[in-house]
Amino acid sequence: MKDIFDTHAHYNDPAFDEDRDQLLDAIFQGDVWAVVNQGTDIASSQWSIEYARRYSGMYAAVGLHPECLDENSLSDIAVIKELAADEKVVAIGEIGLDYYYNVPRDLQKKVFIRQLELAAELGLPVNIHDREAHGDTMEILRRYKPRGILHCFSGSPEMAEEIVKLGMYIGIGGVVTFKNARKTVETVERIPVEHILLETDCPYLAPVPKRGKRNDSSNILYVAERIAEIKGMKTEEVLKATKINAGRVYNVSV
After folding, report:
1. Among the four 133, 171, 178, 241, which has the fewest Cβ within 10 Å?
2. For the chain, what is the radius of gyration of the CA atoms?
3. Helix, strand, coil % (nearest 5) of the chain?
4. What is the distance between the alpha carbons of residues 76 and 41, in angstroms, rounded to a whole number?
5. What's the pLDDT tens digit per position in 43-56?
């Protein structure tokens, strides 16, 4: 049953340095169909492409994460555009807004908008990070109406419903298995499975019963089991539906 499509991973993280290749070999020999590794800066975007070329089931997103911005970021978008020409690049990401970190908000908005414009120019979807910035994120999404995903969704169920009305997808990961995940559970209840995508954000946010440990794509099975329980579906149905969704948004044959 190779139906796990991890739409958001960070296998370039140092947490994988000791056994990265062995782990990737194992997950692709197991139940994992595909992984999209997200870029957060120039170096990680280049890394994502390099590894996507090594594994047929790995794809790359390239972009500038709001936490990683500096005075050169607007000019760095030209490099992101060059990287996006690679055939294994399926999205612009991880991009967005993060008001938890002390990065100037005006700079975050400018870089986010410019990357949304780049994605539209290239005909690519976006993978969006939104942390403590729901209002500004929604204002920008309403204006630019991108195709893509709101990753690791942390907003209200009402916000999720508006995202769906915009034609976008909601990324759900290990948080949905946590005991205090009331908002995430209600979001899953209220939005159609046709707009849900599964993700790890690995090495972070491992689901119960792996919480606190290093996360990897094989753990998506626990996320799918919890979503199936919430929506009254079979786990296999959730995995198949979300795999089809991921193929559609990333334009990857499944």
Report:
1. 178
2. 17
3. 50, 20, 35
4. 9
5. 999 999 999 999 99
Q: How far apart are CA 188 and CA 196, in angstroms?
A: 8
Q: Cβ of 167: how many Cβ atoms within 10 Å?
A: 12
In the chain, the amino acid numbered 120 is A
Q: pLDDT, tens digit, for every residue of 217-244?
A: 999 999 999 999 999 999 999 999 999 9
Alpha-carbon distance of 194 to 54, in angstroms, equals 30
Closest CA to 129 of 118, 120, 140, 121: 140
Question: How many whole angstroms separate alpha carbon 144 and alpha carbon 248?
Answer: 20
Contact 124, 85 (CB under 8 A): no
Please choose, from the candidates 139, 59, 56, 58, the residue with its C-alpha nearest in 3D space to the C-alpha of residue 92: 59
Structure tokens at 196: 């849900």
**pLDDT tens profile 76-115:** 999 999 999 999 999 999 999 999 999 999 999 999 999 9
Q: Mean pLDDT, the chain, as a whole number?
A: 98
Q: What are phi and psi of 150, to 5 degrees?
A: -95, 105
